[in-house]
Structure formats: structure tokens, C-alpha cells
Design a protein that fits this description.
single chain; mainly alpha; 3 helices; 49% helix
């Protein structure tokens, strides 16, 4: 994070999802959206995000982005 900052915010969200930190993961995905992280193109099918797939805030974000 210190070295890459927002350049790896999507990947940071994947890590938080894997740790089961749902709120942190969703917040990072929202940040990724605001900075235009290209990783978001995989958001709807990324298996690294499966642990948060049923979270209503994650589902809402997917819909807002037009992936659902």
C-alpha cells in the first residue's frame, strides 16, 4: 500500500475479501471505482471476491456499475 497506493486498490480489496473483511473490501472496491482501477472489469466474476459476493453492499456496487 505504501509503495503502490491507489494503483493496487482493487487487489487490496481482493485480499480483504479473502480475509473475510467484508466492509473493508467493499470500501476498497468503491475507492477503486472512484480512481478508475482497471481491475474492476473482473469484479462480477472474480473468484477472489466470492467471500463477499452475498453482501448487499457488494451486490449494489455491481448493479451500479452495470455488471448485473
Amino acid at each position: 500500500v505504501a509503495k503502490l497506493g491507489d494503483a493496487a486498490v482493487y487487489q487490496q480489496a481482493e485480499v480483504m475479501a479473502q480475509f473475510g473483511k467484508v466492509n473493508e473490501a467493499v470500501a476498497l472496491l468503491q475507492r477503486a471505482r472512484s480512481v478508475g482501477d482497471p481491475g474492476l472489469t473482473a469484479i462480477a466474476t472474480d473468484p477472489m471476491l466470492d467471500p463477499i459476493a452475498r453482501d448487499p453492499n457488494f451486490s449494489r456496487l455491481i448493479k451500479e456499475m452495470g455488471f448485473a
